[in-house]
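stuck on this:

***
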Amino acid sequence: MARIKPQALLIQSKKKKGPTRINVTTILFCNLIVLLILLSLIATYRHWFQRSREQTGIGLSKFEHVDEIVDSKKYDLPGYAVLNTSKGYITIELFKDGSPETVDKFLDLCQKGHFKGMPFHHVIKNYVILGGHSQGLGGIEDWTSKGKLRGRLTTRSSGIPKHEAFMLGTTKVKEDSKAFQLFITTAPIPDLNDKLFVFGRVIKGEDVVQEIEEVDTDEHYQPKSPVLIIDVMLQQEI
């Protein structure tokens, strides 16, 4: 077997290819690309996170603003009504929180002049005085004819007294303007709790209510001389 010369072996070893070496510059360049990608992802995440927080904040502020508008409108409503009657002035505090729908209806009718010239067409001593454009008793004929004046005072769960003396209410009937009558109680009348919505109370002018209560009436409890609501003035404060 022929022997290979050392010089030939050296030449053959030089011809063999060793493992490929990666240039340092290439490694640095790849690391730089990876770093740029990571920074780009972080920046994108921060951008969308901040945008999401801003949109949420805007949405919440809008809801808060709407709530503020609703509350401001609610408290901008007049809280008092002054009935200018032919016997004098009766000042009434309106239950804006306890009876908001009835108060809104009352205020709307006041602005339309519904109560101007309205008569108190029924006066029942130790019971109620009733004003309205309709001469009927608003569906409480049986209650008034029986003269149910007994029973203890009841109150609503909201804390608003229902039918003490000098409370302002209206009948629970269909909401047309002629059906909206005004009851001012002159004694506690719990028997009418299912018939009336109470939406205010007299805080000044109780003597005027009592004077109206003392007018002469016929056998149907109708005043012999007209007693009128001349006008209604709405006020924020008194």
